[in-house]
């Protein structure tokens, strides 16, 4: 579990996060949603430790990461997997080399052990046998799976995903969501996902944090989304005329078509 307690973050006069207190649970996908400028990305970077808050705490299983020394913080970071929005794969490296990279950086495993772990991770994302291909030789959806395999290679306890469905078609997006959800529940990982994708919200949103103007505007799960009367949530979900019409039609059906 990861908890934040009264997190404040400013950049000069720009007050981005305003007293964020929340929890991200292990074994389920935790989604951060909100419009552009709501503070989602800054919060994600604070959770990872890339930014330091002006005040407040970020607790990994009750340990405040901003009170750790460099050695202790490194131990925490070795338990973190990161799936980047643009995949961040090295074009000059093969798929296998990309996945192996965190092990080269942070472990002293033998090459044989590393190769075995690469194969395990490729099997985990249903992409066995493509070790020697380059990122440019596989599709965008396959690149995303390679990114997931690399994020999982050090057997993380915490997984962070920044817009994992960016640039993907709807069908591939659903497959990526299902894969992340399966890995999260099967390995009891604390997974935090920054997303704009409403399909993700309704598909895997077991714990959803809605942000607006640096505040927590709503918290709940996918089963509560359509039943909520929170105005900020409604404005976010039904921003498009198409979705607004769907909502109106659903309300009519609920009230007997009147």
UniProtKB/TrEMBL annotation:
Keyword Nucleotide-binding among UniProt keywords: yes
Membrane-spanning residues: none
Gene Ontology molecular function terms on file: ATP binding; ATP hydrolysis activity
Pfam families, sorted: ABC_tran
The keyword Lyase appears for this protein: no
Keywords of the record: ATP-binding, Nucleotide-binding, Transport
ABC transporter domain span: 2-238
Protein's name according to its UniProt entry: ATP-binding cassette domain-containing protein
Organism: Neolewinella aurantiaca
Source species taxonomy: Bacteria, Pseudomonadati, Bacteroidota, Saprospiria, Saprospirales
């Amino acid at each position: 579990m990861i908890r934040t307690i009264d997190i404040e973050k400013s950049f000069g006069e720009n007050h981005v996060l305003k007293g964020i207190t929340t929890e991200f649970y292990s074994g389920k996908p935790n989604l951060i949603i909100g419009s552009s400028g709501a503070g989602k990305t800054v919060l994600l970077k604070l959770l990872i430790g890339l930014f330091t808050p002006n005040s407040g705490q970020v607790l990994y299983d009750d340990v405040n990461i901003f009170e750790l020394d460099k050695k202790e913080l490194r131990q925490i970071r070795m338990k973190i997997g990161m799936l980047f929005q643009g995949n961040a794969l090295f074009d000059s490296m093969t798929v296998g080399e990309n996945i192996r990279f965190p092990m080269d950086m942070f472990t002293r495993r033998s090459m044989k052990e590393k190769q075995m772990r690469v194969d395990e991770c490729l099997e985990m994302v249903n992409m066995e046998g493509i070790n020697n291909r380059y990122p440019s030789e596989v599709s965008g959806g396959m690149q995303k799976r390679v990114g997931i395999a690399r994020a999982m290679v050090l057997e993380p306890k915490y997984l962070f995903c920044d817009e994992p469905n960016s640039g993907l078609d709807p069908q591939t997006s659903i497959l990526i969501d299902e894969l992340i959800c399966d890995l999260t529940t099967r390995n009891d990982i604390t997974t935090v996902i920054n997303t704009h994708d409403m399909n993700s919200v309704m598909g895997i949103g077991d714990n959803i944090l809605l942000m607006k103007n640096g505040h927590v505007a709503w918290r709940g799960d996918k089963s509560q989304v359509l039943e909520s009367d929170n105005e900020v949530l409604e404005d976010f979900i039904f921003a498009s005329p198409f979705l607004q019409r769907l909502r109106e039609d659903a309300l009519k059906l609920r009230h007997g078509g009147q």
